[in-house]
Amino acid sequence: MSNKGKYALITGASEGIGYELAKLFAADEFNLVIVSRDQQQLSNVAAELRQHNIEVITITKDLFERQAAFDLYDEVKAKGITVDILVNNAGQGAYGLFKDNDIQRELGIIDLNIASLVIVTKLFLKDMVARNKGRILQLASIASQTPGPWQAVYHGTKAFVLSFSEAIREELKDTNITVTALQPGATDTDFFNKADMQDSRIVQDKSSLSDPADVAKDGYEALMAGKDKVVSGFKNKAMMAMSNVTPDTTLAHMMNEQQKPADK
Q1: What Gene3D superfamilies does its record include (predicted)?
Q2: Phi-psi map region of 63: left, alpha, beta (phi>0 left; psi -120 to 50 alpha)
Q3: Marked catalytic residue, from 23, 61, 158, 229
């Protein structure tokens, strides 16, 4: 079945997992709406993706601001675009002990990872419901199922994303709309720089980090198969299986040991 004429919208598409997902959609002939805060990066990515003879529309929005999420929807609608697939990929973390971290930074993380995701999902989902057709991919994380010392707010936001996604999937079970949660582990992207997390033990061993292209492929295939969720990578699947039978207090301690600064 041809995907020509269909549109996928991807937030956080200028780098990392979002960029790798955009390449997969482009290769399958989807037109793209790619969203990021960095117009120059978006322009560079768009030029690359257009080599697949697809339409690529760039929209610069800072989704740390809730209003930007509403504005994103309005801009897409003003262009007369029907979004067939929505990918909520944009997200960031803040590293450090909760008692020490800047509250405004953490509230920004909550607005980006939760509030803007909820706004964008609701607005585009209403249109999908009207057509009784669509797919949604939400970037959760294996962090969604484990308490996260040194990243308490980030782990909390991803727990929200997973729970929220599973709930609305159930609400939509009698429709032709699917909701899929992608759960990667630590991935070799710019996430750790943006979170000021370079001192963390988990980042020191680069060989332990997942390849964003592999994560994107797992997410893309699960989305297209209509699956409810997918944990990316064998190691992460094993970790999640273990977490299901391990007390949360033990999981929190294990995560503390993984995420605390390497010199502690």
Answers
A1: NAD(P)-binding Rossmann-like Domain
A2: alpha
A3: 158
